[in-house]
Design brief:
single chain, 288 residues, alpha/beta, D-Maltodextrin-Binding Protein, domain 2, 3 domains, ten-stranded mixed sheet, three-stranded antiparallel sheet, 12 helices, 13 strands, 36% helix, 24% strand
Length: 288
């Protein structure tokens, strides 16, 4: 079933007549969107509405209108530009999941390699969030790799070529740090093989310090390296997802954000971001 349902599909799902669907829309009871004059119904929102009507355990507690977790440059821009009223508290993927579990936000952005396979984010979300009612949707695939100080691009072809050099890490809770240490282990390397500097709190800080030759290399996004015009060596493609409380998915702030993401303005801006693949934008990967 598609992520967005037609009136007929909703009627079939609810086992009611289409006329009743229109009545539910008119009274504001059934979550919906209107795109170029056509009614569309977010599947996860409809399912959450059904759960709520049936008296299930859907988490309808009020949460702060805050997006937590790992920073993504395009997402940060979209939240601000959409004027949806959602604030941001970007620190790291693990910090965001912990805060979300503590009811400190309505959504969290994460990019964590799954511990049980080659997928992304799902096992970590399950482990941290337990039975919380959430939907996990894809935001983007992003190119991540090594940002290199001036003069190193010709000498560095991979992680092993950095042995003994000054490396800028991130804090342990950051998805990029978790991924970096996993990639090092796959090549029989560890942090002790490098001169590890004080952790940076953001990827922009990493790229800025490398650009100023305060470090030899760091692990960061291609789009940020491009902004600073720093040499970049691609290493891995990662998936950044957004975990959203199911009830708050169809509350006005997040719906306004989604409406903007579907707009022509968003599409034009997204096309200017280097190292992004948005072909799976808003694909549902996990739904509890």
């Amino acid at each position: 079933m598609h992520n967005y349902l037609t009136t007929r599909e909703v009627a079939d799902l609810l086992r009611i007549k289409e006329r009743k669907v229109y009545e539910l829309v008119a009274t504001g009871q059934l979550p919906h969107s209107k795109v170029i004059g056509k009614l569309l119904f977010p599947r996860v929102a409809v399912e959450a509405w059904v759960d709520g009507e049936a008296g299930s355990s859907v988490d309808t507690r009020k949460r702060p209108a805050t997006l937590l977790g790992s920073h993504d440059p395009l997402l940060d821009w979209a939240i601000r530009e959409s004027r949806c009223g959602i604030a941001t508290l970007f620190d790291s993927s693990i910090d965001g999941l912990d805060r979300f579990a503590a009811n400190e936000g309505l959504a969290v952005g994460i990019h964590l390699p799954d511990s049980d396979g080659d997928d992304w984010n799902i096992s970590q979300a399950k482990q941290k969030l337990g039975t919380l009612q959430v939907v996990l949707v894809e935001w983007a695939w992003r190119q991540r790799g090594l940002v290199l100080a001036s003069g190193l691009a010709s000498r560095v072809q991979g992680l092993k070529d950095l042995k003994g050099m000054r490396i800028l890490p991130r804090q342990p809770e950051a998805g990029s740090q978790i991924l970096l240490e996993r990639l090092l282990a796959e090549e029989d390397l560890s942090l002790s093989d490098f001169e590890i500097l004080e952790p940076a709190r953001s990827e922009a800080e990493i790229v800025n310090l490398v650009a100023g030759n305060k470090a030899d290399a760091g692990f960061a996004l291609q789009c940020i390296a491009a902004q600073y015009q720093v040499d970049f060596l691609p290493v891995v493609s990662e998936r950044y997802d957004i975990v959203v409380n199911r009830y708050h998915w169809f509350e006005p702030p997040f719906q306004r954000f989604l409406e903007f993401v579907r707009s022509e303005k968003f599409g034009k801006q997204a096309a200017t971001y280097t190292g992004y693949d948005l072909s799976g934008l808003l694909t549902v990967h996990h739904n509890v």
